[in-house]
Amino acid sequence: MIGNDIVYLHSGVYNDRIAGSRFKTKFLNAQELELFSSGDPEVYLLWMIWSVKEAVFKCCKRTENQLKFNPTRITVFSIFSNTDKQPNPEFNPDRLEGMGTDRLYSINCRIKYLSHIFYSSSLVTNRFIHTIACADETSFKSAFWGVKKMNHTDYSLQSQEVRKYLADAICSNEPSLSSGYFHFSKDEFFIPELYINQMKSNLVFSLSHDHHYLAYSYLGPVSGDNSPRHQARMISINPATMNPG
User: Fold this and answer.
1) Is the separation of the CB atoms in 29 and 1 below 8 Å?
2) For residue 12, what pLDDT is reported?
């Protein structure tokens, strides 16, 4: 399973809102508030926790189809960074893509939902936070992801463009899959699906967008693994035939 979320940081109204004590209690539970008992956390850290919970929710939604988002039921119980990398507060890319999450400075969390443990990795810049969450910590090494800045904030257009962004990424990462008819849709529980030549793909992916930014993540085949499980994730793509649904 994989889930992702992106948060735009330069919104004064939202930053004032999330820093307010009343709002914090709506998405932080008692255990999390205890983590910050020594003082108020930085605004970016609050947004990161919000992003982590959104990404974990997307993971859970795939197996609990009728799950409703209740952030206080998702507990971030551990926060740490990959200390061998140095953060850069001026880091402001318009486009950034990669595989795995260990090449850049990131803040990582361990999260609990019911009896399940999840793991997250958040790329924090001075413009946005992008989070990937997985149910298996080893999945990060085969996670492809990307973030791109757009020149508009039209929600409906971004919904289409983030799908094309994912399609283009898979074409680039797997050139042999660059032909064929496909379209995106959603199932009855509003979970995104990808169909290839009218057949449902097993590709595990997640999409998000906020303000000027689009982001995708998906689980690709692990290098050297030719098992049917990973072959089933390989898809053919023709962006011109994409259904914007």
Assistant:
1) no
2) 64
Q: Residue 41 gets which letter from DSSP?
A: P
Number of domains in the chain: 2
Q: CB of 3 within 8 A of CB of 56?
A: yes
Q: How far is CA 110 from CA 40, 77, 98, 132, 134, in A?
A: 21, 6, 22, 12, 10
Helix (H) or strand (E) holding 205: strand 205-210
Q: List alpha helices for the chain, DSSP H.
A: 12-19, 21-27, 30-35, 43-61, 155-173, 228-231
Q: Which segment, 18-27, 31-40, 160-169, 171-180, is predicted with the most confidence on average?
A: 160-169
128 in Cβ contact with 6 (< 8 Å): yes
Residue 209 binned pLDDT confidence (cut-offs 50, 70, 90): very high
Task: Please report the pLDDT score of residue 236 as a whole number.
Answer: 30
3-state secondary structure of 213: strand
Q: Quick one: pLDDT at residue 133?
A: 98
Give the DSSP per-residue string, 52-94.
HHHHHHHHHHTTSTTPPP-GGGEEEEEEEE-TTS---TT---S
Give the pLDDT score at 88: 57
CATH of the domain at 77: 3.90.470.20
Domain that holds residue 181: 155-241
Q: Are residues 26 and 132 in the same domain?
A: yes
Task: Look up the pTM and report it.
Answer: 0.84
Q: Which residue reads 């205890």 in tokens?
A: 34
The last residue of a domain, from among 112, 140, 168: 140
